[in-house]
Write a structure and sequence with these properties.
Blueprint: E1 5-8, H1 18-24, E2 31-37, H2 49-58, E3 63-69, H3 73-83, E4 87-91, H4 99-108, E5 112-117, E6 135-139, H5 154-168, E7 173-177, H6 185-190, E8 195-198, H7 200-203, H8 208-218
Bound molecules: D-xylitol-5-phosphate (DX5) and zinc ion.
D-xylitol-5-phosphate binds near residues 11, 67, 146 and 197.
Length: about 220
């Protein structure tokens, strides 16, 4: 039996009551996904280092999944490494020349490292660093905003990553992020995703905890 992990994205929670947002999940989450946007790599701003630090401090037993949508990796990445979340994912499209070094920087700090791909970026662009990755995040919307429509051919990349992992004996998890809803979540899991991020589908719900519990049942196959 495969287990698909659910990672609610706090971007869709009430920004004035993040603690309440986490409580509303009633422990029915596997990971907590935190989107960091710098207003430069993406045209939006979200949480910063302090929020990541507060979350890690308040929930030391939770798996904190930090998704950096930022430029200036050399300056900003060390700040997040200091916070020691469970996982830090960086985009392949930001400062590509630093990708290998940045992944090593995260790994050497004892933190799991992930590589994220925007919808237009092919998997082949990261083939030479897949051996380093603990996770590959496939963006199924253009990064920057919650509540967008799922881009269907994102699942082709998931299938490609599943087969590359098998052929090369890699060990990364495959995560999907963006546009997940009740209608597509089962197909996403069946395509081979190990971790599913969901923002609006979780928090636009009257009972986020119940939604997660219900979806968890539906993903057992
Ligand atoms: C988008 C973010 C996502 C976002 C997903 O740039 O990376 O994590 O929260 O939101 P939904 O699930 O609403 O598409
Ligand atoms: Zn994200």
């Amino acid at each position: 039996m495969r287990k698909t992990l659910l990672a609610p994205s706090l971007l869709a929670a009430d920004p004035l009551n993040l603690a309440g947002g986490v409580e509303s999940l009633r422990n029915n989450y596997d990971w907590l996904h935190l989107d960091i946007m710098d207003g430069h790599f993406v045209r939006n701003m979200s949480f910063g280092v302090d929020t990541a630090a507060a979350l890690c401090k308040k929930l030391p037993d939770s798996f904190i999944d930090v998704h950096l949508m930022i430029d200036r990796l050399e300056v900003i990445l060390p700040l997040f490494i200091k916070v020691k979340p469970s996982l830090i994912t960086i985009h392949a499209e930001t400062e590509y020349h630093l990708l290998h070094a940045s992944l090593m920087q995260i790994k050497n700090a004892g933190i799991k490292c992930g590589i994220a791909l925007c919808p237009a970026t092919p998997v082949r662009n990261i083939e030479s660093v897949l051996n380093l990755a603990d996770l590959v995040l496939i963006m199924s919307v253009t990064p920057g905003l919650g509540g967008q429509k799922f881009i269907d051919n994102s699942l082709d990349k998931v299938r490609e990553l599943v087969s590359l992992r098998e052929v090369n004996k890699f060990s990364y998890l495959i995560e999907i992020d963006g546009g997940v809803n009740d209608n597509n979540i089962v197909d996403i899991a069946k395509a081979g995703c190990d971790v599913i991020v969901a923002g609006s589908a979780v928090f636009n719900n009257d009972d986020p905890g119940e939604w997660l519990a219900k979806v968890k049942e539906a993903l057992i196959f």
